[in-house]
Amino acid sequence: MRREFKLPDVGEGLTEAEIVRWHVKPGDSVKVNQIVVEIETAKSIVELPSPWAGLVAELMAEEGRTVDVGVPIIAVDTDEPAPAGTAAPAPGEPAGRAAALADDMVPSPPAEGAVEPGVHGSPAPKEERTPVLVGYGVKAGAAKRRPRKKATTPPAAATSASTSAPAGPQAVRAPAPPAAPAPPAAPVPPAASVANPERVAVPGPGAAQPLPEPWPAGGRVTPLAKPPVRKLAKDLGVDLATLRGTGPQGSITRDDVHAAAQAATAPRAAEPARLAPQDGEERIPVKGVRKMTAQAMVASAFTAPHVTEFLQVDVTETMAAVQRLKQLPDFAEVRVSPLLLVAKAVLVATRRYPMINSAWDEAAQEIVVKHYVNLGIAAATPRGLVVPNIKSAHTLDLPGLGRALGELTETARAGRTQPAEMAGGTITITNVGVFGVDTGTPILNPGESAILAFGQVKDAPWVVDGQLAVRKVTTLALSFDHRIVDGELGSLFLRDVGAMLEDPLRMLAWS
């Protein structure tokens, strides 16, 4: 039996992913939970295992292609018979649809502050899961469709001829170029399967055959587009029926709608929206993590009113404490750095000022104060900026916090940070000092109220007990959401973090 594995939503409400690398090829034998493909979502690279054992029949998406959630990406021939009491797939429909096993790959969304299991985690009992993917099995006892015949009527009569088609979503092949009338297609046996990436889903009743382009007089075909895309088109005044989709299976994407809207408003003499690369220029597609980061930063910058305060701090004692910690047996396998003590100072200050660790709920018009800390650490990776967080960081001792920081950094640099590890952050630290700059004005991670920038530590003249001395100095910058955090609260929090870095013993006194 051939089964098609559709791209799952890996648990963060993502709508698409890019095929990065296949671990199998057609003809390979696969086992249950064997990794078959790596995908790059808007947040991370995720490995997907096979839900079935059998032989790889077809790879339905090439490497580098962006695929929508719910689109088949691999077909596997298994030895399992079709489930009893389930209608056989109709001609043109994906084989194995009735199996509906791909939902085992989709974890339930995590509870607030909890770590979400990865795709390798144990699935919930079948009766407790809610399917996430589209295209599940036909109900038992449903009427079978009659084999569809190719239209022999002229294009102008295609619409009226289609009225005899059964209601409901159907999958049909893309039309061939106009030619001599073809003989009626032979019925496909119930056990046969069609794995054709060029098939086009035609929703709604009627339209048994797609209409050739341009549309014939009086003809109309419902275009393929997701509900958000339809809403966008309605808002911009774009007629979807006039567009040719560039998405999977010919579906219309947001970019198609925006391009049509710009073309409608641009002067006729204007240059094309997309210019060809010139000598000395390089064009890099915006996708994956960088696309997600751009959207999040724009949303944050123009939603939360940012305020940034700065504080120069003498961290000579902190740097000395880092060297002493490295000599302790408890830190023998821990990478001790100034960032560890900065993180500890932020956790202590957050407990003293809980409002700094809160979020603005626009829909409910409420401030959500969180009595747990998922400490985000901004990390620069080859794929762009990611902000994984340490779950329940407030419960960790100093060695445990150091180990968590080390694991988080290594995973991020390897590009293996999972979406669940970046969800649910409550407050963030960005260490811009590692790039040799004093500080910056960081933008809030969406859903959080504060972010602390830690600048480079350098020798600088400093007054100590009335005498000029050379000390280790850094600059801290705190950006906060002024809807929640007023100037006094932000200043008190930043002052206390600075005081603990000037004298690390205060961390013990205030813990």
Tell me what you see in this structure.
The protein has 511 residues and is α+β, with helices and mostly antiparallel strands. 21% of the residues lie in helices and 21% in strands. It has 10 helices and 20 strands. The strands form 5 sheets. Strands 11, 14, 15, 16, 17, 18, 19 and 20 form an 8-stranded mixed sheet that branches. The chain has a 4-stranded antiparallel sheet with strand order 1-8-6-3, with no helix packed on it. Strand 19 (458-464) and strand 20 form a beta hairpin. Helix 2 runs parallel beside helix 3 (254-265). The chain is globular, with a radius of gyration of 29 Å. The chain starts with a strand and ends with a helix.
Share of residues in strands: 15-25%
Q: Give a short account of the largest sheet.
A: 8 strands, mixed
Mean pLDDT: 75
Radius of gyration: 29 Å
What is the helix tally? Answer: 10
**Could you say which overall geometry the principal axes of the C-alpha atoms support?**
globular
Q: Helicity level, as a percent range? A: 10-25%
Key words describing this protein structure:
10 helices; 21% helix; four-stranded antiparallel sheet; 511 residues; single chain; alpha+beta; eight-stranded mixed sheet
Short description:
By secondary structure, the protein is α+β, with helices and mostly antiparallel strands. The protein has helices spanning 158-161, 227-236, 254-265, 288-301, 316-326, 338-352, 398-413, 419-422, 487-502, 505-510; strands spanning 2-6, 16-22, 29-30, 35-40, 45-49, 54-59, 66-68, 72-77, 170-172, 200-202, 306-314, 358-361, 366-369, 375-381, 384-386, 389-390, 427-430, 450-454, 458-464, 467-481. Helix 6 (338-352) crosses helix 7 (398-413) and helix 6 (338-352) crosses helix 9.
